[in-house]
Design brief:
about 475 residues; mainly alpha; Citrate Synthase, domain 1; 21 helices
Length: about 475
């Protein structure tokens, strides 16, 4: 080749580094085409968006920062800040009538658009994480690379495994889960870098690395807790060429059941994010706003998820249904179920799995699981019972008059599907919820650090002060 036609190594490398699908190098009238260039990684995709997001927020605050976007009533103050517009959450928005949207996309749209495993019917959890962080639907190639990256980061430190092994089987699985994640703080790249002194603009970088490492390790930790408490303590190794949902299912001991693996993928996607105001999401964000590492922040959020009014409800539903079957016996008529519902309410108890703080219609996450059940286990007795309750409970709750939303939420169905495939230990279900919720709350934590979100510090008053504010005398 003549000197004029040679391509320097530096020029070639520079061209190959470009994010386009192919690169072209011109010399002396000739064009040299490469094969398809390597697609952007998740980190590269997110990093490219940061400057634009920061400018968007600055512009919004500068031009509209003084505008009032809502008002707070005294009922909201004493009602748990219900409905108060005060949080920024990019990944999802929950509409009272239509349910959750992930970056503007409904659950059915996510099921259609997000990449699936070969031979699988449900979207991969890697895809929802990518979507929540960047707002973009990843390609199958990008998701496959993310699966491999998580598998490569999955090794759990020996001392954390030993810590789990030393936990008594009587310690609730969620307590063990939170304990193990807190212990992983020892590995925090963010904490170590902050201690040395880093530029604020680099906070997101270390938060990203911690979040990726943490998510990668959750299946191993979750599976070890399950196998220790309920099985023989042995956990299958991570498969480097498998997706996140498969690895979790396989390490739990259910990798040989294709339908369970697909259920686990669906479960991880639909439980991942549900706006920023729920306890687990808000707590993770709040603790993270103090610049606590992703490990400490997620552990705090999981402690909130463990409450019976939040994630523990999926355990409560299955126990309630089992109790119903014992008390009602073989008479599962509409009238007997209606009576049992009234007995539950008249005893001062709630009907678990029904009602929601925001939703006023059937939870789309419930619907997606119901559709899965209709395809895979239409004749299962417990599924039939859930369907029967679904037809009767809204009428009873409406007549009762104390439930703003008489329709089922996601918790009303998930346990029934898990028990069908043999994962019958209801006290463990919230751990799976926790693995999924990490996929939703950690993207927002990365975003918070990237855009420089401040520490959260709302104003509080005493009851006496509130009385003064509304002109009341106590």
């Amino acid at each position: 080749m003549a000197p004029a036609m040679r391509i320097s190594t530096l020029a070639l490398r520079s061209a190959m580094a470009q994010p386009s699908t192919q690169f072209v190098v011109k010399r002396a009238g000739f064009r040299y085409y490469s094969a398809a260039a390597k697609p952007k990684t998740l980190k590269e995709t997110f990093a490219a968006k940061i400057p634009e997001e920061i400018e968007k927020i600055k512009k919004l605050r500068k031009e509209h920062g003084s505008k009032v976007i809502g008002e707070v009533t005294l009922d909201q103050v004493y009602g748990g800040a219900r409905g108060v517009k005060s949080l920024v959450w990019e990944g999802s928005v929950l509409d009272a009538e239509e349910g959750i949207r992930f970056r503007g996309k409904t659950i059915p749209e996510c099921q259609e658009l997000l990449p699936k495993a070969e031979g699988g019917e449900e979207p991969l959890p890697e895809g929802i994480f990518w979507l929540l962080l960047t707002g973009e639907v990843p390609t199958a190639e990008q998701v496959k690379a993310l699966s491999a990256e998580w598998a490569a980061r999955a090794e759990v430190p020996k001392f954390v495994e030993e810590l789990i092994d030393r936990c008594p089987n009587t310690l609730h699985p969620m307590a063990q889960f939170s304990l193990a994640i807190n212990a992983l703080e020892h590995e925090s790249e963010f904490a170590k870098a902050y201690a040395k002194g880093i530029n604020k603009k680099e906070y997101w970088n270390y938060t990203f690395e911690d979040s990726m490492n943490l998510i990668a390790k959750l299946p191993t930790i979750a599976a070890k807790i399950y196998r220790n408490i309920y099985k023989d303590g042995k956990v299958a190794p991570i498969k480097a060429d498998a997706d996140y949902g498969y690895n979790l299912a396989n390490m739990l001991g259910f990798g040989g059941n294709k339908d369970f693996v697909d259920l686990m993928r669906l479960y991880l996607v639909i439980h991942s994010d549900h706006e920023g105001g729920n306890v687990s999401a808000h707590t993770t964000h709040l603790v993270g706003s103090a610049l606590s590492s992703p490990y400490l922040s997620l552990a705090a959020g999981l402690n909130g998820l463990a409450g019976p009014l939040h994630g523990l409800a999926n355990q409560e539903v299955l126990l309630w249904l089992t109790e119903m079957k014992k008390k009602v016996g073989d008479d599962l008529s509409d009238e007997s179920i209606k009576k049992y519902l009234w007995d539950t309410l008249n005893a001062g108890r709630v009907v678990p799995g029904y009602g929601h703080a925001v939703l006023r219609k059937t939870d789309p996450r419930y619907t997606s699981q119901r559709e899965f059940a209709l395809k895979k286990l239409p004749n299962d007795p417990m599924f039939k019972l859930v369907s029967q309750v679904y037809n009767i409970a809204p009428g009873v709750l409406t007549e009762h008059g104390k439930t703003k939303n008489p329709y089922p939420n996601v918790d009303a169905h998930s346990g029934v599907l898990l028990q069908y495939y043999g994962l019958t230990e209801a006290s463990y279900y919230t751990v799976l919820f926790g693995v999924s919720r990490a996929l939703g709350v950690l993207p927002q934590l990365i975003i918070d650090r990237a855009v420089g979100a401040p520490i959260e510090r709302p104003k509080s008053f005493s009851t006496e002060k509130y009385a003064q504010l509304v002109g009341a005398s106590l």
